[in-house]
Amino acid sequence: MKRLGAMLLAAFALATTHVHAEDATFKPFVLASSGPGTLDVRTEETVDALEAAGFRLVGRHSPVPDSHVLVVTSDALLQAAAASDRGGYAAGQRVSVSQVDDGVEVAFVNPVYLQYAYRMETDLGPVRNDLVDALGYVRDCGGGDKKMTAERLGKYRYMMGMQQFDDPSELGSFASHEAAVAAVLDGLAKPGDGLDLVYRIDVPGSSQTVIGIGMSSSGEDRRIDEAEQLAVVDFEGCRKRAYFPYEVLVNGNDVEALHMRFRMAVHFPNLSMMGSHGFTKLMPFPGDIESALEALVASP
Q1: Which of 54, 81, 137, 247 maximizes the CB count within 10 A of its CB?
Q2: pTM
Q3: Within 10 A of 8 (CB to CB), how many other CB atoms are there?
Q4: In Å, how far are 63, 110, 166, 238, 274 from 141, measured between CA atoms?
Q5: What are phi and psi of 73, to 5 degrees?
Q6: If we measure between CA atoms, which residue out of 210, 215, 189, 185 comes closest to residue 200?
Q7: Residue 249: beta bridge partners?
């Protein structure tokens, strides 16, 4: 009965979204389940459920010690990515499994939310349906009381002067797509920069490759640590560890990444500018992340 209730709640939420598409609002994360268990066991159960639903595991990551983030893709995600300009950012679906008190919480990034934020040409509602069928549904979460409509997400910026989806960090340009991918992978193989390879997805039918990157502090000059970022932004509601890993996109011969001032803000649109959980607490991070990613693909 509990499982049936979760499925009915999810079906209602999805039906409301599609019937009232023009004025519907969306939240960035979905809480799939919360209950007893251990982190490692629930992580493997989540992998099994995702693979049984047709998703393919491409990477695992632990941005903080009490969590695992699973990155999966599917035929539907790859087709959507290929059909959209810079759609590779949505080719990997991020699912978090987090220890919470004496239980475990499973959550995932809402693919429909990203569909609008990343200006996708394809409806990702069926992908959300597949995730709910596989993992369950408790509620949509994140974003506080912000009314994030499809129109608002499509042109989102946190405030005047900050970056939008089409204002990425331009990291480098190379003679070929292969050379651009090699530059990123070679950079990730270098020790000591705080950047590590989590996954790579080549999008069939396009010249896009998305590479997921883990970030850890590499000294005072590069304050890019994932745990430090999450300590500021992931402080209420469901756990949002699936914000990571960060993506670098090789699009044709060019390498880019969404600017943190857009990527962070669109995942956490309710954050204040000031206060203990405000963007000012992260003031050095956008510049440090951009510098670290630029150095990643720079010639030795």
Answers
A1: 81
A2: 0.91
A3: 11
A4: 20, 9, 26, 6, 22
A5: -135, 175
A6: 210
A7: 210, 256
